[in-house]
Amino acid sequence: MTPKFNFTRDVLPHLIAVLIFLLLTATYFAPVLFEDKGLAQHDILQFKGGAKEIQDFREATGQETLWTNSMFSGMPAYLIATRYPGDWSGLFHSILTLNMPSLAGNIFITLLCAYVLFVAMGMSTWLSIVGAIALSFTSYNIIILEAGHNTKSLTIAYIPMVLAGLIYALRKNLWIGAALFALGLTLNLHFNHLQMTYYMLLLVLVFAVVEIIYAFRQGTFAELLKRGLVLGVAALLAVGVNFGRLYTIAEYTQHSIRGKSELTQPNSGEGVGSGLDREYAFNWSYGVGETITLLIPDFYGGSSSAPLDTDAETYQAFTRMGVPPLQAEQLVKQGLPMYWGPQPMTSGPVYVGAIVCFLFVLGLFIVDRRWVSWLVAATLLSIVLAWGKNFESFNYFMFDYFPLYNKFRAVSSVLVIAQVTIPFLGVLALWKLIRERELIKDLDKKLLLAGGITAGICALVWLFAGTASFVSEADQQLIQAQFPIDAIRADRESMMRSDAFRSLVFILLAAGLLYFYVKNKLSATVAIAGMGVLVLVDLWTVDKRYLNNDDFQRQVVANYFQPSSADQLILQDKDLSYRVIYLPNPFNDARTSYFHKSVGGYHGAKLRRYQDVIDRHIAQNNLEVLRMLNTRYAITGNEQQPVQRVPGALGNAWFVEEVKAVGSPGAELEALTMFDAGTTAVIDTTKFEVGQQNFTADNANIELVEYQPNYLKYTYQAAQAGLVVFSEVFYADGWQAYLDGKPVDHIRANYILRAMQVPAGQHTIEFRFAPKAYTLGNTVSLVSSILLMLVVLGAIFYAVKKKPTEMPIVEKV
C-alpha cells in the first residue's frame, strides 16, 4: 500500500535542511547579503568591461546585439554576455537559489544540490546535511569564487544533481530520476563552462562502464538499457533547452583558438591543428607530490600570495634587516609567494578535508565493491589527469586522441571530479557504518586501519617536513629583490608541519568519535552531529584563508570603472567609431573595453585569426596593422602623457589602389609585415575572387554614417569602380553586406578585415549581423524549455500524489 503524503515526514525535514544551508550561506557571505559588499573578482570585472557595449545595447533596444566591437576589434558576443530568450533554465536557477546574489547564491545552490544527491541515495536528513557540507566547502569551491570564476562554480554546483537523477533513475524510480537528471544537466549546461561539464561527463562515463559490467554479470543489462535510453532522452531535452547557446558556440568554436588552425606553423601560445597547443594546455599541471594537498592543505605553501602573521620567520627577518615593524607587518600581510610547487602560480590548493579523506579510505574497506569501483576509478582518473605534463605518457595520449580533450587548458581543474567522488565515497562509508555497524566484519579494525593510514601520513609529514627543499622557481626573483629567502623557506616548512599536525588532530578526533559509536558509547544522532561539526570546522577554517570578510569591499565595480584621465581625454572624441589600444597590457585587459572600442581585451576564446595577428604583428608593434584597425589612440599608462595619438589611423573604411594576391593563409599573414595598408589589400585568392588587381582611388571617399554593434551603414562616392577595405573583423557566419538595400557578397582582406568590390557612383553600404544559428537555436530552446517545465511539474505531481515505491534494479549500498 502506497503511504499517504505527510508534511511532517515528507517536507519538514527538507525545510530544516534548507534553513541550515541558508544559515551557513548567510554566515559565510554576510558582507554580500547584509552589507552590500562585493569582491574585486578579476574575471568578473573583466567580464563587465567586455560586456558593457552588449548590455548598453540591450537596455537601449531590448534586443541582443550578438556582436561587440569593444574587444579584439570585434567578435561574436556568444561567449561574453548573450541572452537566449527561449532558454528558461535561468528561471529554474533563480527559483532554486531564492534569487540570492552571486557568491551567496553559488554556495547555497552547491549545498542544495549536494543535499539532493545524498537524499536521492536514501540517507537521512541529518546525514545528507553532513554530506552536503563535506562536498560543498572543499577549498576549490571557495577559491574559484575569490578569483571570479562564478560560472565555473555554478557548473560544478549542479554536478551532484545530475548524479542524483542518474542514480535515482537506475536505483529507484525511473521517471522521477530522469526528470531530476534532465533538470540538473540543463542547469549544468546553462552556465556554459563546458570544461567542467566535460569533466562531469568523464565521471558519468566511468559510472556507465561499471554499471554495464555489473549488469552483464547479473543479467540485468536489458533493464539497464531501457533506463539508459530514457536518460538519453532526458539528456537530449537538457541539450535542447541550451541548444541556442550550444549551437552558436559550436559554430564560433571552429573560428576560435579552440578550433583548427589554418597555418602550417604554430604561433606562440596556441597550436596548429584542432584544439590548443600542448604546452599551453598543460601549463597548469598539478604536481604528483602536490596531490597530498587533498589531505594536508598547505603541504606546498598554500597560495602564491599568502599573508603571514607577525610571528612568522619572514617578519622577524625583515625587522632584523632594519625594516620598521609597521612596514615589515605590511610586507608579510599583503601576501608573499609561499607556494613552492610546480605550477606557475596558484590561488590555493585543492583540499577536500582531512576527515573526508579518512572516511574515503574507510570506504575502501566497508562500502560495497560496486560503489567503490567507480568512485575510486573516477578519483584516480581525476588525479592522473590533473598531473598533466608531470605524467606525460598517459596525459599526452589523452590530449592527442581522446575526443575534445584538447579543447581545454589548465588541466589541474580536473580535480573537480575528485572533489565530488572523495566526499561521496566518504559519506557512503559513514552511512554504511551508522546503519550496519553490527553487520560489518571487523569494523573496529577497519576503522583503526583507515585512521592509521591517513593519520600516519600526516604524522610522517609532521615529523620529517624538514627534509623537503621548499625551493620555488620564483625564489630567484625574491633573492634579487633582497627578500629574506631563508626565512621564507622556513615559513614554508612551518606551514607544512603545522597543517600536517592539524590534519592529524582532525583525523584522530573523527576516528575517535566513530570508534565510540562502534563500541555503543554514543548514539547515531550524536555521532552524525559530531562528524558534521568536525567536517564543517575543518573545511570552513581552511576556506577562510582564501576568502574571508576582509576581502569584501563596497562599490567594487564603480571604483574599478572610474574613468581615468586618459579615458576622459579620449571620450572627448565623439566620432562614431575608432579604436584604442592599452599599451601596458593590451591582451589581458577588458577595462579599456568598458569605455572604448579596444584593439585588445580579455577572453579565453579569441578568434584564431585575430590571435595570429596579435602574435605576428600587433605584439611586434606593426604600425600598419594598427592603422588598418583604425587605432586612433594609445593609452600609455604614463601620468605625464596618458594618451598618444596613433599616427595615420585609416578610419572606418577606405578605397585601395591595388590587390596583393597570395595563395595561402600563411602568406596572407606574412604579407602584412611589409605593406601599405592605405593603398594595398592583401587577399588570399584561393578563397576569394577579385575581378581586377589595380584600382583608381582618386575622387573616391566613404564615410560611416550610422553605427550599432550589429549594424553599420556607410555612404560612398566614387568616380570608378573600386575595392573598399573596412576596418571591421571578417566573420562570415552571420555578417551580411547590402548595397543599396540588396544583399551582396563581401570578402576577407588583410587576414582579418572585410572588403568589397563596389561600383562607381553614389551608394549606400550596410552590414547586418543576424546569424541564423541564433534564431534556430532559440526556437529549439523555447520548445525544449516548455517540455522540461512539463516534465518537472509532472515529476513533482507524481512524487507527491503517487509517492512511488522504490524499484531497484541492483542492490543498495
Description:
- The chain has about 800 residues and is α+β, with helices and mostly antiparallel strands.
- Helix 2 (about 10-30) packs antiparallel against helix 6 and helix 24 packs antiparallel against helix 25.
- The two termini are about 25 Å apart.
- The longest helix has about 35 residues, at about 485-520.
- The strands form six sheets. The chain has a five-stranded antiparallel sheet with strand order 12-13-19-15-16, with no helix packed on it. Strands 6-5-7-8 form a four-stranded mixed sheet. A four-stranded antiparallel sheet has the order 9-14-18-17, with no helix packed on it.
Runs in which pLDDT lies below 50 for 5 or more consecutive residues are 266-272, 806-813
The counted number of beta strands is 19
Rg over CA atoms: 30 Å
How much of the residues is beta strand, in percent?
Answer: 5-15%
Q: Which geometry do the CA atoms define?
A: globular
- Main sheet: which strands, in order across? 12-13-19-15-16
Tell me the helix content. 40-55%
Task: State the distance separating the first and last CA atoms.
Answer: 25 Å
Number of helices: 32
Helix/strand/pairing class, anyone? alpha+beta
Question: How many strands, what sense, and barrel or not for the largest sheet?
Answer: 5 strands, antiparallel
Overall pLDDT metric: 93
In short:
With 813 residues, this protein is α+β, with helices and mostly antiparallel strands.
List the helices and strands and how they pair.
Blueprint: H1 7-10, H2 12-28, H3 30-34, E1 38-39, H4 42-61, E2 67-68, E3 75-76, H5 89-96, H6 104-120, H7 125-136, H8 139-147, H9 150-157, H10 159-171, H11 174-190, H12 194-218, H13 221-241, H14 243-253, H15 278-281, H16 313-320, H17 325-333, H18 354-366, H19 369-387, H20 392-401, H21 418-436, H22 443-464, H23 475-480, H24 485-518, H25 524-546, E4 552-553, H26 556-560, H27 565-570, E5 579-582, H28 591-595, E6 597-598, H29 608-616, H30 623-628, E7 631-635, E8 643-645, E9 653-656, E10 658-662, H31 665-670, E11 680-684, E12 700-708, E13 711-718, E14 722-729, E15 735-739, E16 742-744, E17 747-749, E18 753-758, E19 761-769, H32 772-802
Parallel strand pairs: 5-6, 5-7, 10-11
Antiparallel strand pairs: 1-4, 2-3, 7-8, 9-14, 12-13, 13-19, 14-18, 15-16, 15-19, 17-18
